[in-house]
Amino acid sequence: MTDTTGDDRRFPPALADLARAPVDYADGKGIDFEPYEEFCPAEETTAWVRDWTGNPDADGSALRIFGQDGSGGLAALWRARPGRPLTEQPVVFLGSEGECGVVAGDLSDFLWLLADGIGPWEAVVLDEDTPEGALPDLAALHATTPRREPRTIKAEARGEFPDFPSFVGDLRL
After folding, report:
1. Dihedral (Cα; 69, 145, 9, 118), 10-degree rounding
2. For the residues of 4-54, what is the DSSP string, one character each?
3. Could you list the pLDDT tens digit for every one of the 173 residues in the chain?
4. In what order do the strands lie in the sheet with 91-94?
5. Do residues 117 and 125 lie in contact, with contact meaning Cβ atoms separated by under 8 Å?
6. pTM, entire model
7. Cα gap 56→39, rounded to integer Å
8. Burial 11-44 (b: 16+ CB within 10 A, else e)
């Protein structure tokens, strides 16, 4: 079930700090992620979801887009946990080539992935983890969950939210 009630668009402090942090692409060996300074506006999110799905009636209200990769794929918080704060919602990725998947079970686990050099695109598209290490201070400051192996974080999130591909599929024509 996706909670789409309300319109909480207050940017969490962890995302505000991420927007100010240097995310190093390192000529393709780093993290391919450009964080935003605020959530994408609701109208823009819905327009993007409609373009991405090809469905003129698709609704983007369950997503809070907070960044993108170099090709235009988007990272978002997916409001899948009714009544829970945005920081406790899963992080998802919708790629420019149709890729989609759950990145992490919540914002805290996403920060730990970043600390290990894994961005949204890398978490969904790459099969193997090749952590180089990045942004550990940000994760240490804001994470509310313990640091775990990236593979564990991704597996737990996908296990808890196996219906994300169905959610995306339902948005398509």
Report:
1. 0
2. --S---PPPHHHHHHHHS----GGGTS---EE-SSPPPHHHHHHHHHHHHT
3. 344 445 688 999 999 999 999 888 888 778 899 999 999 999 999 999 999 999 999 999 999 999 999 999 999 999 999 999 999 999 999 999 989 999 999 999 999 999 999 999 999 998 776 656 678 889 999 999 999 999 999 999 999 999 998 999 888 86
4. 34-35, 63-68, 74-78, 91-94, 100-104
5. no
6. 0.90
7. 22
8. bbebbbbbbeeebeeeeeeebbbebbeebbeeee
HEC secondary structure over 86-124: HHHCCEEEECCCCCEEEEECCHHHHHHHHHCCCCHHHHH
Provide the CA 109 distance to its chain's centre, in angstroms: 11
Name residue, tokens 């988007």.
74
